Amino acid sequence: MITFASSVLYSRLSSKNLTGNIPSDLTKLSGLVELWLDGNSLTGPIPDFSACINLKIIHLENNHLTGELPSYLTNLPNLRLLHVQNNMLSGKVPSGLLSKDLDFDYSGNINLHKDGGKGKRTRVIIGSSVGAAVLLIATLVSFILLCKGKKSHVKEQVQHSLPVHRAVSSLGDAPAEAAHCFAFSEIENATSNFEKKIGSGGFGVVYYGKLKDGKEIAVKVLISNSFQGKREFTNEVKLLSRIHHRNLVQFHGYCQEEERNLLVYEFMHNGTLKEHLYGPSTREQRISWIKRLEIAEDAARGIEYLHTGCVPAIIHRDLKTSNILLDKHMKAKVSDFGLSKLAVDGVSHVSSMVRGTVGYLDPEYYISQQLTDKSDVYSFGVILLELMSGQEAISNESFGANCRNIVQWAKLHIESGDIQGIIDPSLQNEYEIQSMWKIAEKALMCVQPHGHMRPSISEVLKEIQDAILIEKESLAVREGTSDEMSMQSMNSNLNVSSLDFVGTDNYLSVDDSIAQPAAR
Length: 520
Prior knowledge:
520 residues, Phosphorylase Kinase, domain 1, 14% strand, ATP-binding, nucleotide-binding, kinase, transferase
């Protein structure tokens, strides 16, 4: 029989074919910091974890959980991430979770709503009644005015009274999720007639803008004649508007007038990761190793959401350092997700973007002509090598006479045990070599030539988080404050094989074949 040690800090049991209810023994682990039970076949309600006051991360997505979302979750003081999407939860989302500074995803639970069902029905009834009354009055007024021969005036009134409804209906039945349709004149004013260019790529040029309410935006002007028809474009824009995650660049809306297609995003004050690694101001604004790890963690979370939190899953297809943007707090967000779906296959001037970028492109693509989630993992492995080395993915000078690719160059050094040969000199030994090796080994697994040999992005994310923990503990040692932290680290290294679950019919079950941790 399996039992839980009270000192367990991390319970990581993602995608282990677990069934049954979540065991109540887990709720007694007062020191628990992270709970990963996603991707299983767990059933029943979410138990009471209110005693686990140290919980920061809860992953319960992609199971078969039922019942309501417990209100005690709003009172967990350290909770920073709560993912419960794609279950069978029902009822009302506690308002405290919506107002909390929280990475919160409850999509895919069709009976779980922000507002209670009764209140929602009442509003629907009231709204319908008011709407009917307004329509009746409008009809009578229109008839009277028409009788007086003021047809043009009536037409103008009707046109000015309905634009919001037309915009919503053109994008679906959920106004809260519908993309905002900007007028071209509004974009012209916001960008001062497209005065400040802040970026460019295969899909178009990006300009800085500021709306009347003070919100800063980035406007991507897409290349003309490179995208699908109006209806298909609008449908894809509708999909983009429903993808929300703190590590994905927020999509604000679009503009489509006179053959012009524009996409509007939040403005990211610190530009791209590429600029910080290789730009002219790199020396003055050097990024420390632990900050690079945190940027990698942010980006991995965004990609993980696209792969596992979206239905259907979204493959980015063009991951690279120029598509990882940094906000004013140096938090990373992934951009340009979903753009490859907007483009028409076969259009020559965007085909390189649709099929990825040289240096980051999955080598299997040249055989299968297809990109998968493991293609994104390959690209992310290249990014990890760039973060470690400060070298670009492709170079004619940095890797020697017979080598242009960072993967081939890094592999030679790492497999020969010479990790120092690839570490960015600007880091000046401000790192823990153990964390460097951890990331180097995982990066090599990501860039394996065949997709089935690569880890999932979730596995990569966990390795990055472990490396961050090592760096924080090392920093605490240097500052003389790590005695307690080191003890926690020893406890946190417990793996699945040391944990035990009570084996009753109402509890989660573990097959012997999966009880041992997989090799990384």
